[in-house]
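Researcher: Re-running this chain for the archive, since the previous output was lost when a drive failed. Same request as before.
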Amino acid sequence: MKRWLSKAEVTLGNHSDRLNAINIFPVADGDTGTNLYQTVRAAAQGIQECPETTDLGVLINRAGRAAMENARGNSGTLFSVFLGAFAEPLHGHIRLSASVLATALNRAQIRAWSALSDPVPGTMLSVLEAAASAAADADAAQNGDDSNHALSIALDAAVDAALTAVVQTENELEALNAAKIVDAGGVGMLLILDALRSTILGVGLQDDLLENLHGYNTDYPHIHNQMPDDDGTEVMCTIDLSPLDAATLRLRLDEMGDSVIMSPVGESDAQTGNYRWRVHVHVADPGPALALINSLGTPANVTLTQLAGADSDSGHVGGESAV
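Model: Regenerated structure tokens:
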């Protein structure tokens, strides 16, 4: 598990520029590669700092919490949700099997879909769903075989299905179809799953995996530069809230903006019953959103990022400030 996240970190670092280049949904801000890389890096560091244990659930839960506390953007937040949910069926297990993998992927894709107020097919959500379904089918066909060979079959099936889902994203979202590209977040999730397959099976990454993906050739321009800028702001924070207050916050943020993602970070507090929540939203004006958040609790790790494309002079993407 430690090697998986380290390999995923390196892989996303190598591909971040190309992922940024095709990032036009939900906004053309050209930062999906950067956001995924930085979030996965936080997860990789978090798992390395975990106390010695043989429990896979403990390890991945630690990585998921680290990722969630440092999540960047839509893609990074959804990856954090994926990792935290992936950890749950792993508790008590000291090795991965096809059955455990299938259960963990299914839990993760359900949680990722539910974290978004308005989930959209044709994104990394569809890629996760396809991978989970393929792993479940592969496991069912092997009648409870928990061997490493059975695991390899499930991993191959999951990555193959993820690739097919990535190719299909171009036809599922109008913006991607018009630009003739695939979804950046979906490609990032495919790379993460291939890193898992590579690590567990002890084989190399599949270098030809992305060869025929539309828009992914390094000779192609940064597609997002051709899109109109979005004048909005991405607001992210972590806050302790009761389930009722969290539901209220989600409802109100849905009214203020879009791309609302809310997911709990870990278990509830034994004394207060409150959960720690990671909050993400795109809004035209961050003022009312911040006022609402502060009226319900004391947020931490607050960041505001302008949802603008890369500056033509500097090449820098967006602009982030901590509050």
